Amino acid sequence: xxxxxxxxAIFSSHLSAQESLTExxxxxxxxxxxxxxxxxxxxxxxxxxxxxxxxxxHINEIMQQVPGAWITRGxxxxxxxxxxxxxLTGAGSCGAFFVASDGISLRAPGFCNVNxxxxxxxxxxxxxxxxxxxxxxxxxxxxxxxxxxxxxxxxTDEVDHNIAVEGGPYDFYRAKYxxxxxxxxxGISLRAxxxxxxxxxxxxGYDQQKMxxxxxxxxxxxxxxSVLNLSNLNQETAGFIKDYQAYKDEDVKDSNPNPEAYRDxxxxxxxxxxxxxxxxxxxxxxTPYLRDNEMEFLQHFLPWKSVEENGHTSLGLRTTLxxxxxxxxxxxxxxxxxVHYSIRVGINPxxxxxx
Length: 355
Fold this sequence. Notes:
This protein is mostly beta strands.
């Protein structure tokens, strides 16, 4: 029996979708690689291939690949987040979403910022995992509406390096560099980029630099992954145009009512994840981390146009004991399939210690 071409195409795409789902894994939901098909969560993954294909300038462009998610694009690198939720603003926005780099919150609780996504090197990430809707208790109260986890790129087995230069309208220029290699038990992955944009509106634009450096050490019973993330943003912010039907006026739509507005921000995150194999069934993971960020900007959206300065330096520690096993003897005696189980116990303080 021959199937019509259309039926064949539908059947093939269905099989491909099933295979893709079966092979897909998540680390955000449980902090270990888990079959995504078994997760009772609404999740999406943007892999490295999609990130390279889109080559986004703003996080909004790549997050359009995620159903149920919307990142509203502000001027420059500013944004507002929505994950199966209203587009929230101010403290209500950054406090309702858990935004992380390799599972570690970009900022400590109480120090979030609505625009904090620009601190992550999403442009050169290995993948972006998104949980839409309330997430697991692993991430505390800030995961009320969901999680955006930006994962760094692992080291490659062989030398991989590349330099890319881009240019665009309104004096947009960007340079990217990557290097990766593994020698013996040590692997290294470096991603860095710098962007300059004069902006579409008058007296606007930004200069931004980001870097992610990852070192890996792999031995029989010990694995260590250390990652350093740096970012710097110097932005001349354009304000909102309030004139009626201003978009129809060529002289007005690219004007800037607030040429004095600006945003300067810089951030640092450093962590080391140390995994000890205790025995065949138990693995201990210890992750100390350091975060430091500073931001200064003009609140041009307020009548008094005050200058806000915020920042914090914090230390944190995350520990987890993974226990896996199977009820072999009991199952064999009863003649039923072996029962597998997994237990995760750990300590993750809800608030980092301010120093």
